[in-house]
Amino acid sequence: MAECKPAWLSATQFERGLAAFEAVLDAEGFHPTPTAAAEFRDPFAPSDWQDFLPSAALQPNSVEQVQAIVRLANEHKIPLWTSSQGRNNGYGGAAPRIAGSVVLNLRRLNRVIDIDEESAFALIEPGVRFFDLYDAIQTSGAKLWMSVPDLGWGSVIGNTCDHGVGYTPTGDHVAHQCGMEVVLPDGSLLRTGMGAMQGNKAWQVHKRGFGPSLDGIFMQSSLGIVTKMGVWLMPRPECYMPGWLTVGKEEDFPAMIDALRPLLIEGVIPNQPMIYNAVCAASAVTERKDWYEGKDPMPDTVIDRIAEQPGLGRWVMRFALYGRDGIIDRQREIVEQAFAHISSIAISFNKYDAANLPELENPHERVQAGIPSNDLNQMTKWYGGEEGGHIGFSSVLPVTGRDMATLRDLVRAKLEAKGLDYSAACIASGRTLIHVALVVFDMKDAEQTQAAYDACKALVEPAAKLGFGEYRAHLDFMDLVADQYDFGGHASRRVHETLKDALDPNGILAPGKQGIWPAALRDPAARNK
Ligand SMILES: Cc1cc2nc3c(=O)[nH]c(=O)nc-3n(C[C@H](O)[C@H](O)[C@H](O)COP(=O)(O)OP(=O)(O)OC[C@H]3O[C@@H](n4cnc5c(N)ncnc54)[C@H](O)[C@@H]3O)c2cc1C
């Protein structure tokens, strides 16, 4: 008897579906119970939560198997929840939005199909982790650099599909993907852009095809399963110059953001700088108990003590310059001049010959050179050590000091009202800041865990009222975030639903992803019967 299943199927119907999946997979790819699928639960969800529990997991090893699974899911009305590596930690991991869904995990599709040094791109499958792509580039001998997020264990495609970010000049991953192969909800295969033409030579170099561009509708999406994707890489620069900027006084922070904006828009700073507050910077190398044992939110006196440590500040920005010797020296001068009027700011740089990089000890310097690492996972251990949890509350704002200050004050107040520390990492990208509140908690502490999830939900509407939306959200408040995108009486939701109904009439792909529900489950009551 099935322990967990989609609510609208009988146990017999569900078991019949599972048997059909088993027939098209090998033993390694078939995990038919919640226990067998345990590694695809949200690692940071309380253990007694059943809301996002997967019933089973499937790990196909070919595109044909993915297609067969999708066709069977239609036949048996079984919802599938796609992941590539399935390490979307902080946003729900690999867990599905609706309990009883079957996880379709693509780790076994793990080929780096092509690395093209001439045009600086790679063509990869969904199971390829950042570590794998890095190794493949090194092995090929190509003089190319890639972008990585702070953790290298995720997949390039999964991260891109959830609008993820990295920290070299190709760190806006959506902007640097080019050409997809997608299994559609009916099991048929599509290639986007120039790939729509058989044998076309420009699939990985030209982002558009003929007619409306389709790639965007397969990201943060329940309309298809990406089975191949092109990724743009950057030529290895002559020099690599990571920099650190510290802001000693909290009141100087808005001015620092305003001074940063023109450097980003002009391209003087070409990568995606990360700006941490003192708590977040400390969490990369220490635990909370090293600073403060109080149950209340960390007071400013303690935060100041952290900020006074060498290399830290109330806020710290990591960033990097890349390019020809001499040119980046001039860029460095421009950066230094841009912040010279702010008295509490200090800036330092390291300069490396990129062709002969030494072993970089600092994980921040590795990440900005596109070298994968998992060291920064330490941040989740702030409260609970090995049992520390984390939710990303990730709002988007313009790069202005006034918006930054408004959002900072709101998020800090809401977290502190729930007894939590305000830990923030802001990713700057061109005209945008993504303010990620790392809502950290101790999973052993049920009350604090609940407070963390409640704090995120309590933030969504006030942030929207101030003009800030989330670019990505945990399963627990995905619907609430989607509700805020309300222009034109939720015109955007209506278009999403129209596409969903047309392409996936049985609603089998990722129901509820980004708050988009198939027709049969649009009424919340229908999801439990
Ligand atoms: C300490 C810490 C630091 C982090 N730092 C970063 C960071 O710097 N940048 C960042 O972006 N994130 C970061 N994250 C969040 C997350 O860990 C990464 O984004 C990670 O790369 C996502 O996991 P994945 O690549 O395995 O994606 P997956 O879990 O495989 O996929 C994520 C989502 O994308 C969709 N998807 C995946 N594969 C497909 C497919 N083949 N077809 C269609 N849709 C698909 C699904 O909706 C899925 O839920 C961090 C998390 C933690 C805990």
Measured between the Cα atoms of the first and last residue, the distance is 18 Å
CATH superfamily of the largest domain: FAD-linked oxidases, C-terminal domain
Assign the CATH architecture of the largest domain.
Answer: 3-Layer(aba) Sandwich
Total count of domains: 4
The Rg value, from CA coordinates, equals: 23 Å
Name of the CATH class of the largest domain:
Alpha Beta
The distinct ligands, each listed once, are: flavin-adenine dinucleotide
CATH topology of the largest domain, which one? Vanillyl-alcohol Oxidase, Chain A, domain 3
SSE order and pairing:
Elements: H1 11-24, E1 30-31, E2 56-58, H2 63-76, E3 80-83, E4 102-105, E5 112-116, E6 121-124, H3 130-140, E7 144-145, H4 156-161, E8 177-183, E9 189-191, E10 225-232, E11 234-235, E12 239-247, H5 253-266, E13 274-277, H6 278-283, H7 300-307, E14 315-323, H8 327-339, E15 345-349, E16 352-353, H9 363-368, E17 388-398, H10 401-417, E18 424-429, E19 432-442, H11 446-465, E20 469-472, H12 478-483, H13 487-503
Parallel strand pairs: 2-4, 3-4
Antiparallel strand pairs: 1-2, 5-6, 6-10, 7-11, 8-9, 8-10, 12-14, 12-15, 12-16, 13-14, 13-18, 17-19, 17-20, 18-19
Helix pairs in contact: 1-2, 5-10, 10-11
Structure, explained:
The protein has 529 residues and is an alpha+beta fold. It folds into four domains: 95 residues, Uridine Diphospho-n-acetylenolpyruvylglucosamine Reductase, domain 2; 124 residues, Uridine Diphospho-n-acetylenolpyruvylglucosamine Reductase, domain 3 (2-Layer Sandwich), CATH 3.30.465; 240 residues, Vanillyl-alcohol Oxidase, Chain A, domain 3; 49 residues, Orthogonal Bundle (Vanillyl-alcohol Oxidase, Chain A, domain 4), CATH 1.10.45. The chain contains 13 helices and 20 strands. Strands 12, 13, 14, 15, 16, 17, 18, 19 and 20 form a nine-stranded antiparallel beta sheet that branches. It has a five-stranded antiparallel beta sheet with strand order 5-6-10-8-9. β8 and β9 form a beta hairpin. α1 runs antiparallel to α2 and α10 packs antiparallel against α11. The longest helix has 20 residues. The structure holds flavin-adenine dinucleotide. Flavin-adenine dinucleotide binds next to β3, α4 and β10. Keywords: FAD, Flavoprotein, Oxidoreductase. One of its GO terms (biological process) is lactate catabolic process. Pfam families: FAD-oxidase_C, FAD_binding_4.
